[in-house]
Amino acid sequence: MIEILDVCKAYESGNRALRDINITIEDGEFVFIMGRSGSGKTTLLRLLIKEEEPSSGEIIVNGMELHRMRRRQVPRYRRNFGIVFQDFRLLKDRNVFENVAFAQRVVGASSRAIRESVPEMLKLVGLSSKYKSLPQHLSGGEQQRVAIARALVNQPEILLADEPTGNLDHQNAVEIMDLLWDINQMGTTVVVVTHSQEIVEQMGGRVITLDRGRMVSDEIR
Amino acid sequence: MRISVLWYCLKQGLKNICRNIWFSLASMATVSACVFLFCLFFSIITNIQFMVKSMESTVGITVLFEENLSETDILALGAALGSRKEVKDMVYISADEAWESFQTDYFAGHEELAEGFAEDNPLAGSASYEIHLYDIEDQEDMVAWLQKHDGVRQVNYSSAVAAGFVSFNRMVGMLSLVIISVLLLVAMFLISNTISVAAAFRKQESQIMRLIGATNFMIRAPFVVEGVLIGLIGAGIPLAGIYILYSRSVAYLTERFQVLSGVFEFLPIEEIYPVMAAVAVGLGAGIGFFGSHFTIRKYMKA
Q1: Which ipTM score applies to this complex?
Q2: Residue pairs between chains A and B whose CB atoms are closer than 8 Å
């Protein structure tokens, strides 16, 4: 469960990115965080993965109080999350298999575990046949599927997707959202940050809207 | 640590070297220069020390006494001399023994010439002590101590050779320390630069690693491995070179200057190489480790 309690974030420049945010996300939920550019969506994600500290307020994830967390505990904490970015952030010098395996290698997984789980993940995202391809030889939708496989391969409890369809055409965007929905149905909490009204309307579900750092609505559509 | 993690770090370290091959080669060359000079000076210093040690066993001090000094007084001084810790061994040569030795050396075959002195030892005032020290560096102090004693007529010692060797050894030591220190700093600086370039090149990868939950160790290790590999390769090249160079130089010098073989005695390569190689490898790995470790700590903080 994610609890965001009275969280404010102000930068040294004086810019107040978030003001009095209160959000609770239960395990297994599918939540959209919507808002225009500069509304504070990405800042909220950065606070969740402890890339930044809130100026005030508390964030509690699966019972872990982030403000009490020591620096050396952060890497292990981040393994609770799988993260998907708008620009995919795949390693261009490694093929699909290696990009997914990378997430396991860097957390010290054994070669055997990698050999078992990577093909499973590629099957889940429908890219089993392209495991040898380099990212630049894949379409945008396929690259985002690789990124999702990489985010899921360590079996995180929460999947954070920051504008996952931002670089995709409508058809690919719908397919990616369907994939995220399927992943949520398997028990993973999914938080999708987007500014696309179209995608939100099409998918429905819980939608939290931010505007200039304030939460303006939290509704089921 | 898992073998797979170790393998991963090693592989990434090697990849980094290949990606920035020119920077890596420049760093290796500087480490090589540093290690080469270390090996060169190490060889020189070790050999000089060896020669000085050899000399210590052959070069001695001879103390001659006043003619009127009684043998009892001479032996009393000998006892005081024997109790000094820097004295390795000492031999007392009485006036009679000195004369006998002289006769053997200079009148061999013409003993009748010495018979004229049968009743009157011409070397009556030549009782002496021949002293060998543990450390030739103590020679000056020992001579000064002997000279201030009443009854000591003359102290013979070869100060020039011993002092020459000792001061030359010190000079080489200081010079090598300065040059190696400067090269060490240059090598560290170059490795640091190479690692900075590698870190910039892999910035996105490191960012992804951080977000996935990789530990600082896992993020930094490939860069440190890269630094250590550069250091080790940089040390390996001059080590191979110095092995050949030393063996050939010693063979050449020994053959060319056979006349001086009594003074210039060189250690065989097998005797100095294990220590030299161990220190050189440690030096190379150390330069690589510290150069990369501190750079990457500065660049990447979780």
Answers
A1: 0.86
A2: 56
What is the share, in percent, of chain A residues with pLDDT greater than 90? 80
- Three-state DSSP at B125 gives coil
Q: Choose which CATH entry (3.60.150.10, 3.30.565.10, 3.40.50.300, 3.30.70.270) describes domain A1-80+156-221.
A: 3.40.50.300
Contact A124, A152 (CB under 8 A): yes
User: Where does residue B2 rank: exposed (0-12), middle (13-18), buried (19+ CB within 10 A)?
Assistant: exposed
What's at A167, amino acid-wise?
N
Nearest CA in chain B to A91: B205
- Cβ A154–B212 below 8 Å, yes or no? yes
Question: What is the rounded CA–CA span in Å between residue B181 and residue B191?
Answer: 15
Which tens digit of pLDDT belongs to each residue from B153-167?
Answer: 888 886 666 667 777
Asked if residue B186 and residue B133 are part of one domain, the reply reads no
The answer to whether A150 and A100 have CB atoms below 8 angstroms apart is yes
β-pairing, B87-93 vs B128-133, is antiparallel
Burial of B192 (0-12, 13-18, 19+ CB in 10 A): buried
